[in-house]
Write a structure and sequence with these properties.
Helices cover 39% and strands 14% of the residues. With 405 residues, the chain is an alpha/beta fold.
């Protein structure tokens, strides 16, 4: 009988992450989800996310807990020669080195690609930061809001609501992190064929411009523009969850057959023959009027009444869940999405499943991850594995080059 469960294709792969905030830490947490052994190198004061969000204990805030499961923590001051030499020893046996500082900063610290790949030619070296190193923005600091603005995300909100706005999630960091994971996985596959590592760069601005442009280049897809930028359906102010008699519901017919079912279900058969709405092209041109019909109709029934009808006729819809709703969502319960992870200092934590699965149902699967580490929790252990003696480690601690808990 086939056993479904967690996918661990990176078991045995050693990753060193010199990351902060969300970008590199989130990327390496996904690598840990897939089985990689991730060593998180933190400054002596710790990653700043240790203090962002709700915290039961100092240095263990929610954002850190969510981005750093499954890792070991070593606290080092890389400006100290002893700490840098110790990191170089770790690199000797590493498969992946990941950081999200600017390229010139990495070079100054002695952890640039030339230095580390000279130590370990099989190393996959991945740098991820705001702007590509070859461009004029390379030396500028960048955070998620900055890149949302620079990549056009904020301006798209202006076209809908009249003022620029940020998406209320860390979309630039997390999207770029997904590309980081793809790049690293591809480089590891190539190394399996050639035996050689590779240097990767994954800049946020370029990644988010790629991401946004998929649908919003529109007429700018042609070298000689054929129309304006922006995908009309997404920029329509009537595109939103619509009010029902007692709440809200997201309704999203897309194909011709789905729209035919929808118009039939809502009791508006005349719309089926309206030339403005007979196919995808005409509906796209008249999307504002189409959404107005949806918005006028849904308040005539309760949410549960619409849900029953849409389920019966296979019309795409979605409840407007709050974050609180998601932790009790029936579907997520069916698939075993949420798990309990007991943390030695923080107690019982709620953690999501890694969404890529081997296939099929796996309601009883549990994540084989350790909880997020305390600052420097594994410093002595990791340095000993790298060959440092107890006396060497004690010297580094006395010199304030490393920190242990």
């Amino acid at each position: 009988m086939q056993k479904f469960g967690l996918m661990k294709p990176l078991s045995g792969i050693r990753v060193i992450e010199v990351g902060a905030v969300v970008l590199a830490p989130y990327a390496s947490s996904l690598l840990a989800d897939m089985g990689a052994l991730v060593t998180k190198v933190e400054p002596l004061e710790g990653d700043s996310t240790r203090h962002l969000g709700h915290a039961e204990h100092r240095g263990m805030a929610s954002l850190f807990l969510n981005c750093n499961r499954g890792k070991r923590s070593i606290a080092m001051d890389l400006r100290k020669p002893g700490a840098l030499q110790a990191l170089h020893k770790l690199v000797d046996s590493a498969d992946v080195f990941l950081h999200n500082m600017r390229a010139d900063s990495a070079d100054r610290l002695g952890i640039g690609p030339a230095a580390l790949r000279a130590l370990n030619p099989r190393l996959v070296y991945c740098a991820t930061y705001g702007y590509g190193a070859a461009g004029r923005g390379a030396k500028r600091p960048a955070y998620d809001d900055v890149i949302q603005a620079a990549s056009g995300v904020a301006a798209l909100s202006e076209r809908v609501g009249g003022t620029p706005a940020y998406a209320p999630t860390i979309i630039a960091d997390k999207t770029t992190a997904l590309f980081v994971v793809m790049g690293i996985m591809g480089a590891l596959m190539e190394r399996g064929r050639t035996g050689e590592g590779r240097e990767l760069e994954v800049p946020m601005l370029e990644t988010m411009t790629h991401f946004v442009g998929v649908e919003h280049l529109n007429g700018l897809t042609w070298q000689e523009p054929r129309a304006t930028s922006g995908y009309t359906r997404l920029l329509n102010p009537h595109r939103r969850p619509h009010r029902t008699k007692d709440g809200y519901l997201a309704v999203m017919p897309h194909s011709d057959s789905q729209w035919r079912k929808f118009f039939t279900v809502i009791g508006r058969p005349e719309v089926l023959v309206d030339p403005r709405f007979t196919d995808n092209a005409s509906r796209s041109r008249n999307i504002a009027q189409l959404y107005m019909i949806v918005g006028e109709t849904l308040p005539t029934r309760t949410t549960s009444e619409w849900v029953a009808l849409f389920d019966e006729h296979d019309v795409p819809y979605g409840h407007v869940n709050t974050l609180e709703d998601l932790v009790a969502d029936p579907h997520l319960g069916d698939v075993g999405f949420w798990h309990r992870l007991d943390h030695p200092s923080e107690g019982a934590l709620r953690v999501p499943s890694f969404p890529v699965r081997d296939g099929g149902p796996r309601g009883d699967a549990t994540p084989a991850l350790q909880p997020a580490p305390a600052l420097g929790q594994h410093t002595a252990e990791i340095l000993a594995e790298a060959g440092l003696s107890t006396e060497d480690i004690e010297t580094l601690v006395r010199d304030n080059a490393v920190k242990t808990t």
